[in-house]
Amino acid sequence: xxxxxxxxQSLLVLGGTxxxxxxxxxxxxxxxxxxxWLAGRPSPALTAAADSLRRLGAEVxxxxxxxxxxxxxxxxxxxxxxxxGIDMVLLAFGVLGDQASDESDxxxxxxxxxxxxxxxxxxxxxxxxxxxxxxxxxLVVLSSVAGERARRADFIYGSSKAGLDVFAQxxxxxxxxxxxxxxxxxxxxxxSRMTAGRAPTPLATTPEAVASAIELGLRRRSETVWVPxxxxxxxxxxxxxxxxxxxxxxx
Length: 251
Known about the structure:
This protein is α/β, with parallel strands linked by helices. It is built from nine helices and seven strands; from the N terminus they run βαβαβαβααβαβαβαα. The chain has a seven-stranded parallel β-sheet, with helices on both faces. The protein is globular and about 55 Å long. Its EC number is 1.1.1.333.
């Protein structure tokens, strides 16, 4: 159970090799988290991630999880909850894709959409139902500022994150008053393996900074967290830029 600080004793990370997911796990283990489940495709990377967290003193388990295999989500994730209560679920998986090539490869574009949106809807509903049934817990969903407004440079990825963001907000409303809750996290450009080779945008951040913002959001019981925080004001302005002018901006 979470204490008065709002921080969890037990954590399930969907996307067990995610740099943001692992940075968040490390930060929470340093506070009070004692049990961590890493859900991801079985691989040496997942094993190494689990070992790294064990060295910090946590009890760590892994569970096979593939965002695209939605038929398995209820059984595999449900099993985690039968092993004991989960205080926090971090939905941290996702793919960026390659906008330039994906525009001419519908199969690849659909894979981005199915991973980031369909897989998140399936696993998110499974975990939300389990949190509601136990009467407590937080579902933290990694969205993105890319979903705030369509951009020529990344509209395939951005559209999947826009769908995820709306889904997460609605799910939060559906859970209101049940003891379970949803927190949406909207980072800007994150310097990580996923963005390696891409020029960082202004206000770029790091996995560690996102993890810090997640901790603060949990303590404050926030519904939405922007990383960095100034993006809230920036995107409020960007949403109202006339479309003909927005097309000309270097974004």
